[in-house]
Every structure is written in C-alpha cells, then in structure tokens.
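request received
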Amino acid sequence: MAVVAAVPRAETQTAPRNLGDQVLRFVLRAAALTLVLLVVAMVASMVHAAWPAMRAFGWRFLATATWDPVAEQFGAIPFVYGTLVSSLLALLIAVPLGVGAAIYLAELAPAWIRPPIAFLVELVAAVPSVIYGLWGIFVLAPLLRTWVQPALGATLGFLPLFQGPPYGVGMLAAGIILAIMVVPYITAVSREVLLAVPTSQREAALALGATRWETTRIAVLRYGRSGLVGAILLGLGRALGETMAVTMVIGNRPEVAVSLFAPGYTMASVIANEFAEATSDVYLAALIEIGLLLFVVTVVVNALARLLVWSVGGPVKTERE
Amino acid sequence: MKPRTRRVLNVVMSWLSALAAVLVVLPLLLIFGFLLWQGASAVNVDFFTHLPKPVGEVGGGMANAIVGTLILLALAAALGLPIGILGGLYLADSRDARLPWVARFLADVLNGVPSIVVGIFAYTVVVLPMRRFSALAGAFALAVIMLPIVVRTSEELVRLVPASLREAALALGIPQWKVLLRVVLPTARAGIITGVMVAIARVAGETAPLLFTAFGNRFWHQTLDQPIAALPLQIFAYAIAPYDDWHRQAWAGALVLIGLVFTVSLAARVVTSGRFTGVR
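response:
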C-alpha cells in the first residue's frame, strides 16, 4: 500500500496533473470538512441555545434539585442522579453476565457456536429501543410489580434500597431494561478483547500446569484487563444516552429517591418528555443545557473506552452499532 | 490449593460462564417471542391501509406512519449518503496532514453521541429557523446519525481494495480521479452498499431524535415542511396511551418495524456474502 501511494504522491503533491484530480481532491476534502463543521455546529448551536439557562442559573444548575417549570426554577440534580443510578444498576447486572459470556465464547465454546452468537448480537444491535420499551411496559413492569418487588421487599426490605410500594415502573425496571440492552455490546467487545490476547500467554500458563480457568484468570483476563474496562465503558456510554426504553419504564418523576422501587427520571428522558412542550424560553434552554451535559459526559466516556480498548488490540470493530 | 479443588473450581467456572452466555441470550429470545406472539395476533390488512382512527374508536391502522418512515429514510439517505461516502473515500485516500485525523476522531465522537442530542441539534438548526416541526428536520437528524457509520464503513471498504488494482490502472496512465471512480469505487461497491444498509437499518427505528423534529402526524402529511408521522413515534405514542386497542396496534407496529429493520439488515448480509467475497 505504501509503495503504491508513493507513486502518485511524488507528482500530485507538487503539481496536480490535471483538472479532474484537482476537482476530486476538492470535493473529497469538502465532504470531510462538512463532517468536521457539523460537529462544531452541533456544539456551538447547543451552547448558544442553552445560554439563557446558563446565564440565569450558572453553576447552581448542577447543584440544585428543584425542577419547577411553573416557577421557572431549574436544577439538574434529579436527572443526573437518575441517569447515573440507572446506568450503574445496568452495569451491575450486565458486566458479570457480559464478561462471563465473553469468556465462554472466546475461551471455552466449541467453534460452531460462534457464528450464530455473533449473528444474534448483530440482530440485537438493530432492535429499536422503542421496542425494548414496549416490552418493558407490558411485560417487565407487571412482572416486577406482582412478583419480583414484593419478594425483594419481603426478604431484603430492611435495606432502604428495597422499600416503598411496588409500582413496577421505576429505577429498578430502568436498570434491568438497560442491562438487557447493553449486555450484547459488552459481550461482543469483551470477546474481541479476549481473542486479541496472544496465544503465547495462554500457552505459558498451560505449560506451568494451570487449569483452563486458571489460565483464563491469570493469563487472559489480566492481560486484557484494560480492554475489558474499555468494553464496560462502551456499554456505559450507551446506557447513559439511552432514551426511549428508559423513558417508558422509569416512571418520570423528578425526585431523588434512595429506593430502587421509586420512580425516577433521567437526563435523556426529561428531554424526550418535555422538550416539545416547553412553554418558556428559559425552560427550553434548561432542557438544552441538560442535553449539552449529556453530550459532554458521553463523549468523555466513549473516548476513554476507545483508548482502553485500543491499548489491548487495535481499533474496536464493533463501533458500527 | 489442592489439585482436587482446582479441578472442581475449573469445572464450576466453566459452567458459570456457559450460564452467563445463556442468560445473555435468554431475555432477547423472550422479547422476540413475545413480540411475535403479540404482534402477529394484532397485525391485519387495515393496519397497512388505514389511517389512525380518532380517540375512542376501535380499528384503523398506521398506513401514514409506514409511508412517513419510508419518506424520512429516503430523505435522510439522500442527505447523508453522498457526504458519508465521499468522506469515507477521503479518509481512506488522503495524505493531508491534520484533517483526516480530525475527521476520523469527530466521526467516532459523533457515533457515540446519544440520538436525542442529535435531535436537539436538528431542532436548533432546522426547526427554530423554519418555525415549525417538519419532515425535513426529522430527516436531517437521521442523516446526522447515519453519517459517521457510513463514513467509517466506506473508509474501511475502500482500504480493502487491493493495491495491485490501482497500480495497474495508474500504470496505464489513467488519472487518479478516473481510477477512483472507475476502479476503486466499483470494486468496493458491494461493501459500501452493505454499510449503507446497516446505517439505514440503524436509523429506521430511531425514535428519540424524531420526537421534536418530525413530531408525528395522525393524518397524511401534506408537504415536507410539515410534521410527518413515523412508525417508531406512533409506537411510542400508542404504548404510553391508556387504550387497549392502541396497545394492540403498538405491538403490530413494533412487529412491522422490526420486520423492516431485519429485512434491511439481512439484505445487507446477502449483498456482502454474494459479491464481495472475491475482493476480500
């Protein structure tokens, strides 16, 4: 490739040979510039639109828990809290399952099982979030309300996490639906990280007399550790920005409640629910500021995740969700 | 540790990891199963041919939403694909100093941005100046979501074109632009089509960015600068409404939507497996 590239380079970089090449060069560069400008415009337009709220509330926006559109008092705490708690709950469920499944697929499973699993993960990635939400409303929430929450309340009810009336919809439902949605990604990326671990690592451990599991633990997991953290962060990035399914099952109440049974609200779902109905300029600006906050957080999480996965074995192949 | 404990631990952990794999797959099968069961019993001819009935009347369909989704997808493709494919060509080919790196990085950033944030962007740059919700705004939002996917797949596939092909063409004295258009692009075509279809499948089910751009419409849309119905929006609206008949239709809509998404994804696979194998 490098050799081929060198052939035209010598000539074209100093003086493009003909008009056609110049036009092509210009068009391609314009397309790439459009992409760059689009992202710049995205940040600029959102900052501009959020400005009234930034000016009115300043840093208080991030430190107050009042969300009162009538009195035009806006604080982001309930939404930040809801987003963090629902995403962490999702990771709590999804990480052991996803990494476990990845170990099975990369280290133990017979070869024939891999293509169907890869295909399934691909299909799942294509399932629209609104369909998970539909299932959440009509299957998961009733299930939680009639069976799971009463049982949890009876056994672990002494913990503040599991107190209060069982509504079905609420933080717990949101965490579970998010876990179901992100676990395929965590599995897929973790599997690739594990497959990128050099065989010599495994052979060394096996040669020392380690069992299969010991090899996995000592040689494979330790070697791929930072990549696995990256896979988890990629899952977190998706969970933080996930909108429809969460909006449909979290209960949509802007409160900070300790109990997982209580309804909550996330940054993405408050935008989804209230944006089209925002009555005043400052209300709209406050919602856009939440969007901006979400943007910054997801970009940071995703960038970190990519760096970590790269550190183990090249670019992430599953980045095309 | 005693050898016996180690062996037992080995077996236990193997089974646990297999169990994890089962638990990952199980909920997905449950969701598909339930969707098929509920959707199949709710879908009928009316669903494809009728408009939504007024609140309180049973029956009707989502014909306008199905057509609306197709229009939004076509518009989004018309907006996003040319820039995406050209951008991908640029990334695969360019020897500029900084722009490729910046563009690649920003494509990845854009790919990770939650779709609802893209919706806000479309609202501020399309809906606010036009002073109304419109099909154009919805299509713009979907195009922005498609863009990074198309850019990165096109780049990847153009890179896969064997260097010998280009060398042969260049050695014949053909200018670069002709080599790109007549040799490189046709060779990578099947792969790029796959990438495009994956991108379309991905945005077909997007709901969040349409909430305050396309907005939805219970009637046939009139022009592209008016609000337009979309299948995912309609499913969402019907799912959270308190009417049983609407819930039934939401399931039907979900089945149709997932049918659409899977058809496009499967078609993408067929294209790749059939014609592209020679190049790889």
